[in-house]
Structure of SPOR domain-containing protein:
Amino acid sequence: MTPINAANGKGTYEIRIGLWASREQAFEIQERLSRALCPEVEHNGPCEVPWSIVVVPPEAVDEGEDHYDELVVQAKIEGTY
């Protein structure tokens, strides 16, 4: 991957975490990850490293948009789908 700014080597990278969870569990994990990335909720100015986080609804996974086919198969095997 070529960085967006070759002068400083910085660019946008995406880290995806697929998990099978209830809506409440997903938002709890989102909150925990947010606190890991930015432990000081009320700090001045932006974070040192800009970041964002989003929870993708199950419909997007079910439609195959996010390439989590293995996760859906495992949920079906475990009977939680």
